[in-house]
Amino acid sequence: MRSILCFGDSNTWGFTPGTGERYPRSVRWPGLLQAALGDTAHVIEEGLCGRTTVFGDPHIEIRNGKRALPYCLETHKPLDTVILMLGTNDCMHKHSATPFDIARGMSVLVEMTRASGVNDILVIAPAPITKLTAFAEPFEGGREKSQLLAERYAAMAAQFGVAFLDAGSVVRSSDLDGFHLDANAHRTLAASIERAIVKR
């Protein structure tokens, strides 16, 4: 049985746009991926709202993906595949990170995953921010940054020889909050991820 770790932020956790509640597992993309793969795989959800690639949050320190990933990699050993989907929260104004910086942050997670013994890695660029709603102030300038992440991530993935998927090419963030995926987008993303990992 293939063991697959899904490491991400609120869109992996299953944040419902407009309400802030959590979608049930049957609606979240990792749960849909599990349903599609059936008994051939064990899909592990490791999503956390607000998680970044490598940037610290003085208010909630556990949001730093660089600090959390090693524990996840060790806890769920042995792993066959790791899916990394982060970057939206890195676009927050307080991190002062450029799209290049954010891609560098993702590359750190790729290197950490490889160092743990996992070579089958899928990097996903999150769907761009569509508009700034209640989150406008913390994400000042973030929409423009998010629109460049796919290009930067694709170049990084090619450099490191890992698989890449641009979520923005198949889904769109909900206009209810500008950040999160609706149920249909979770379904579409899960199908795209399944195709990306099964063909390898």
What does this structure look like?
Helix 4 runs parallel beside helix 6. The chain has a five-stranded parallel beta sheet, with helices on both faces. It has one domain: SGNH hydrolase (Rossmann fold, 3-Layer(aba) Sandwich), CATH 3.40.50.1110. It contains seven helices and five strands, in the order βααβαβαβααβα. The chain is an alpha/beta fold.
User: Could you give the order of the helices and strands?
Assistant: EHHEHEHEHHEH
* Total helical segments: 7
Largest sheet: 5 strands, parallel
Annotated CATH topology: Rossmann fold
CATH architecture level-2 label: 3-Layer(aba) Sandwich
Strand order of the largest sheet: 2-1-3-4-5
- Shape descriptor: globular
What would CATH call the homologous superfamily? SGNH hydrolase
The gyration radius over C-alpha positions equals 15 Å
How are the elements arranged and paired?
Elements (H helix, E strand, L loop, with lengths): L1 E7 L1 H4 L15 H9 L3 E7 L17 H11 L5 E5 L13 H17 L4 E6 L16 H5 L2 H12 L2 E4 L16 H16 L2
Parallel strand pairs: 1-2, 1-3, 3-4, 4-5
Question: How do you describe this structure in short?
Answer:
By secondary structure, this protein is of the alpha/beta class. It is globular, with a radius of gyration of 15 Å.
